[in-house]
């Protein structure tokens, strides 16, 4: 049904992880591209833009949404985007959307309409763009907009709710996707254990339970003495599954760098093993390849929207967790685990505190603990 | 006018009375499913992906008409969703023979032999499904807009390839019959169930065999056996199980212990709700262990542990896992668990495995994944799709005991190993050219340039740009020499890109 939606118009697609929202976005981009339409595929972060480019092909006209917004705002108003003051001790300064909209209001509406009448926008992970952004799009107005969103995956700051997007989008068609095409039974059950239901998206269906569930998610605890062996096991796993794209998701940059170094060092010590190991950093971003097997080591905040055959969540001890952020952390674990198609491994250092333990499922059918 | 002209025309007129073109009214999504599955299927073979069309009138059957569609049928074919595109699949059944049913306009159903039956325009033909895709003469849609929408929609799906099908926009085909109105009233034909996962396993196994045949002379011989159907003597018991399954639907009696276990594992995979190799095999073996004793118990438990370890973080390498087991079935299971993706499996070259082990692993993988999971690179081997489709349909009719004869089997593609078989004086010119092209595209170092020079002394200069050999006049012969042995070895463990595979086969006249 979604694939048959006309190219012109406003559309709102919701659905949980693995229901095919991003695929629909890319197929729509392909259609617009083939029809020589002026379109832009807006994504939440640069890594997702990079991955989308590789999945679609180099011709994809994609942009990180803020970069696109800053450019369009300057084109229209001739001014830089205004910001509010930073909140408390945070460095991050939110966009002053009210002033943005005021400045937009000073422009000739005829000129704006003429300029953007034929522009098509496809927005993936639409829940992560702020409400002001949708007000901005509606104020211009963009007539051809396709938004895909999952409100159970809102892990960034300043997200939009279902109602906020719906009010601004005023879509011609709306559809919710429910079937989970990505996660195998074990992964889907684990993701479900972290779900914090938010209005706007029904969580995807859990696939039927096989006679004997395979590739059960595992929490693997390793001691300092066994660290080297643990990395060797990871490498051997990749060697046995050479076409698997394996995501190693780290709680912070320090752990990301440690895993990267340890994996590379372990790879050198295993005979006959050539396993690509890459990361997303300023220096190495161009070496990422989502179309081949191997490890991609990334930070938790960058994993949104990506898909891996297998996910390792590195050193879960390092994820902070206290009472007031339990739901936030659950959502993060929901997003991280749901990236995996076949299997999830969580890795934990022995003899260290593990604040995140409070959100982990106790049921060994859902998360097996080894050793 | 010659008398023979008159005779020919009269003869032609007489034979044209026999209807060979039959029509199936459906919608584009059902059509895509059938193309992906490799068969023209009945309504009850689609699972939850079925949208009502003409097939809904008799599950297990193909209702076909000639001439115009019944009044209301086209609307029925796109009644479930507004974006459905009605299509008519025109089938050529000239090779078909055997028992069929005539469904007359008054609702009566009568048994006939297809080859001798005569049908009126208002009669419908009811055939037990499935039919091979090779029967498709063309696909008709109402207009150019529908044709474009259908082609655009197909681009989104990996396992649907409309290339090679004659697609036409033909409005008259969609105008309703005045003699017959569409009715979903039951035809009283018994519901027939197809075992789709078994059919998919047949297709997948044969497709894997085409590529495995490149590995060795023996596997090439086994490929001929599996697609040919002749019973060959001296075949290992485990392979006999597979051969009997392909040719008769099940293995013979008096199976030895390993052969029985192989068949039981196949049945367990087929019986698993999601055809999961891992789930079905480990569960089955775990149940066997308590009833065993001695060495067999230890070996089976060790196999179960290793199979379970593969999906976890075992410290064993592939080599160690395979070296720990010596029985062909155990090693085949390890291989199948290690490489569940078809192409990974076909390209496995880390450990020397026996031909039998490869074939058993292929059988188990095919049992769990089926033809629908077959990647494009294998699906697109020229000539493979029609041959596989035919074999799956033939297998289905054998299992159903329908008595339908689908006609001659389309030729299966020859293995690349056979196509590169050298003649008495080595590789032919076209073989050499094809090999050079493969070597260049795949960056294989299997070519040498041989330059034959007349006797004499030559000036050899080393410059910063490289080595220069100066010869007076022209070199006698410059030729590219292909290392044939190395070529076959690499072809044996490489799945070529579709375009290169097709170009190679075309160069070699296959």
Helix/strand-derived category of chain B reads alpha+beta
Please summarize the sheet with the most strands of chain A. 7 strands, parallel
Number of strand elements of chain A: 13
Q: Report the CATH superfamily of the largest domain in chain A.
A: P-loop containing nucleotide triphosphate hydrolases
Q: Provide a count of the helices of chain A.
A: 11
Question: How would you describe this protein?
Answer:
The complex is a heterodimer of chains A (371) and B (510). Chain A contains eleven helices and 13 strands. With 371 residues, chain A is α/β, with parallel strands linked by helices. Chain A has two domains: 2-177, 3-Layer(aba) Sandwich (Rossmann fold), CATH 3.40.50; 185-370, Rossmann fold (3-Layer(aba) Sandwich), CATH 3.40.50.300. Chain A has a seven-stranded parallel beta sheet. In chain A, strands 3-2-4-5-1-6 form a six-stranded parallel beta sheet, with helices on both faces. In chain A, helix 2 links the parallel strand 2 and strand 3. In chain A, helix 6 (131-139) packs parallel to helix 7 (162-169) and helix 8 packs antiparallel against helix 11 (326-337). Chain A is globular, with a radius of gyration of 22 Å. The model of chain A has no long low-confidence stretch (mean pLDDT 89). Chain B is α+β, with helices and mostly antiparallel strands and 510 residues long. In chain B, 43% of the residues lie in helices and 14% in strands. Chain B contains 20 helices and 14 strands. In chain B, the strands form five sheets. Chain B has a four-stranded mixed beta sheet with strand order 1-4-9-10. In chain B, strands 3-7-5-6 form a four-stranded antiparallel beta sheet, with no helix packed on it. Chain B has a two-stranded antiparallel sheet with strand order 2-8. In chain B, strand 9 (136-141), helix 4 (144-155) and strand 10 form a beta-alpha-beta unit. Chain B is globular, with a radius of gyration of 28 Å. Chain B starts with a helix and ends with a helix. The model of chain B is unreliable at 1-16 (pLDDT under 50).
